[in-house]
Amino acid sequence: MGVEQLVRAAQRGDPAAMDALVRALAPYVGRICGAIALERGDDAMQETFIAVLRNVRALREPAALHGWVRRIAVREAVRAASGTATPFPAGVEPPPLDPVDVASALDVRTVLASLAPEHRAVLVLRDIDGLSEREVAGVLGVPEGTVKSRLHRARAAFARRWGQ
Fold it and tell me: What's the pLDDT score for residue 96?
């Protein structure tokens, strides 16, 4: 079943389609939420899927699914990272990293954690997801100039902290 058919079936309330949609989107949403919300990434991911499933009927164009889900994931990840979402459950650990990448991943995670959630969101959307500055502005709901200045400050802060 293609994405459009899957979305249409989920919009009709088909539980199997909803499950398949979550499974198909989980790696994408997890990457966004984990990079922005850090240790609260799982919580942000869960909140993202709650919002997606509650509002899937409102999605007019199934082809716009990824952009729509991206906006929800970024919003929920920033909310979780800012502490305005439900706290991350105690005792729940993120999935284990490949041992070869642990040192670098921890360094990157530490540097990312020192940035404001808004700066992490801009970095993830622009440098990891590869969106244009105009697209990032649309996802975040801010002017393009704000994206440019946040991106400049975020990259400079990341570089400065990475070199310490």
Answer: 44
Which of 35, 38, 34, 2 minimizes the C-alpha distance to 21? 2
The count of domains in the chain is: 2
* 158, 111 Cβ separation under 8 angstroms: yes
Residues 77 and 119 in one domain: no
The two structure tokens encoding residue 141 = 């709901």
Q: Higher-confidence residue: 110 or 40?
A: 40
Tell me the CATH number at 131: 1.10.10.10
Q: What pLDDT does residue 108 have? A: 64
Could you report the per-residue pLDDT of 80-92, keeping only the tens digit for each? 988 764 443 444 4
Distance CA 36, CA 20 (A): 25
pTM, two decimals, is: 0.63
For the packed helices 65-82 and 41-55, what is the interaxial angle rounded to 10 degrees?
A: 140
